[in-house]
Design a protein that fits this description.
The protein has helices at residues 13-19, 21-35, 61-71, 83-86, 90-102, 142-156, and strands at residues 3-10, 38-39, 48-51, 77-80, 106-109, 129-132, 137-140. By secondary structure, it is of the alpha/beta class.
Length: 177
């Protein structure tokens, strides 16, 4: 059974309405139960909780204890409701994510389904992609992808030689056509 640490945070009264500690904790507990995780307590508290601390600063008591639990290999999974609950700073978020993953701990966010290959908002896909409701994934729209390729070719003066279905780019230098 994997051991999971649950981290929750709010900093302002306005956030309590949208991301209240109780609703974050309930959602994280549900996820832990669904996946069969054993919840690792933070001392006498069931969860690692920073109430009233800004996400723009890594100097938070519960976050410090959580990072210690990660370093000491007391957890296998870190569950957090949303990346901005862990940090509002991208560089700090990347630092914590690197520490967590370097320790062999899996980092899971409830609101980030894209990491699982699922599309979070099918109405917000880049031009050239469609949505497959059966798989909940983005798929290449071949007709629109040709428009994207043509625009790229005209803008950059080079040809796109990779099939759009492979969804990766290869620079090929000057046009050979």
């Amino acid at each position: 059974m994997l051991r999971a640490a649950l981290y929750i945070r709010v900093s302002t009264d306005a956030q309590v309405e949208k991301f209240g500690l109780a609703s974050q904790e309930t959602a994280l507990r549900r996820r832990a139960q669904e996946r069969g995780y054993l919840i690792v307590p933070d001392g006498t508290n069931e969860v690692f909780q920073d109430d009233g601390y800004s996400g723009g600063d890594l100097q938070r008591p519960a976050l410090a204890r959580l990072r210690g639990a990660v370093r000491d290999s007391r957890v296998d999974v870190l569950l957090c409701y949303d990346p901005d609950r862990l940090s509002r700073s991208l560089s700090d978020l990347l630092l914590v994510a690197h520490e967590v993953e370097a320790a062999g701990v899996r980092l899971e966010f409830l609101t980030q389904k894209a990491r699982q290959g699922k599309v979070v908002n099918p109405h917000n896909l880049p031009y050239g992609f469609g949505f497959n409701p059966g798989t909940q994934q983005a798929v290449v729209d071949a007709e629109r992808a040709q428009v994207v390729q043509l625009a790229f070719q005209r803008c950059c003066g080079c040809w796109w030689r990779t099939s759009p279905s492979k969804m990766h780019r290869r620079w090929c230098g000057p046009s050979s056509r």
